[in-house]
Amino acid sequence: MIDAAFELFDTVGYEKTMIIDITKKANIAKATFYYYFPTKESILFAIVEQYLMQVADAIKTEFSQKSALDKLQFLMHEFFVPHSIDNIVINLEKDDHGELATKLWYKSQILLNPILRDILKQGVFEKTMSIVHIDEVISFFWNIFSVLLNSVHQKEEDDIFEKKRSITITLLEKLLGINEGVLIISRKCKKI
């Protein structure tokens, strides 16, 4: 069901996709859909959760022996690697579902907060980060980082993105107590 919904949301759009379309594509009864998902919105959240759990799993497995800074770089870069979920979110905003896009962003933060918390604790332990109040820092982290993500989603000009990128890096390095010049963020990141 999740794969069917994902494909429809990506190709047809969230607004135009009906639950009946998902059930037909998944070849299931409508009652089966409602057994697992009470609404179309709930399956959208499941799609995002599935993707974010893949990112979290990669950090836990592929990056388990890496430094906190490597893990943080990977997490941030994943937001800039093109993915179909980006199209779905951008179309939500275009189709006047900005509130739903905002809910997805907050849900993403909630899902990734445990991973980010572990990364920051590791950074403090490794002495590559200097953080006293980790939970509060996490909140600021997402707010600062979201400015740069919005710049990408809104397809702002390169010069505007570069200014925001520079400011974001400076703020995040200061927030996380990281040495200046260590964080690298670009519009077109490749996986580390």
State the main characteristics.
192 residues; 9 helices; 0% strand; globular
Task: Summarize the structure in words.
This protein has a domain at 44-176. It has helices at 2-11, 19-26, 30-36, 40-61, 68-78, 84-94, 98-126, 134-153, 158-176. By secondary structure, the chain is mostly helical. It is built from 9 helices and no strands. Helix 1 (2-11) crosses helix 2 (19-26) and helix 8 runs antiparallel to helix 9.
Return residue spans where pLDDT drops below 50 for at least 5 consecutive residues. Answer: none
Supply the helix-strand structural class.
Answer: mainly alpha
Radius of gyration: 18 Å
* SSE ordering: HHHHHHHHH
Count of strand segments: 0
Helix tally equals: 9
Distance between the termini: 31 Å
Average pLDDT metric: 89
Can you summarize the main beta sheet?
none
Reconstruct the topology from this structure.
Blueprint: H1 2-11, H2 19-26, H3 30-36, H4 40-61, H5 68-78, H6 84-94, H7 98-126, H8 134-153, H9 158-176
Quick recap:
Helix content is 71%, strand content 0%.
